[in-house]
What does this fold into?
Amino acid sequence: MIKASEIRDSKLIGLTVSSDWEHSEHSIELALLTFDNQKRLYKLLGVTRYSIYEDFSCEYIAQVKLLYLESKIFLSLDPFDEQSNIPDYENDCFWFEAFTLERVVR
It folds into this structure.
């Protein structure tokens, strides 16, 4: 199980949104660079919705909210309240909702 601490304090260096409309399969790949210059890839599979707003005011991901809900995962790379255990669709920023989150090893 991936933890928020694996993502926190990294730089987002890539984001790829993929959609297979024929099969209704949508995914997002996040490329992160850790503080020790290690590249990590994460893939959200079965994306049901997402919201991205970025003003490029901060280089690092300072806060992360990663919630494992009943049947979905909620990930916010800029949460309003990192300690909250519920998704805040109105106030959390740069968030994703999907069925699974996995680390990609290449």
In short: The mean pLDDT is 95. The chain is about 5% helix and 45% strand.
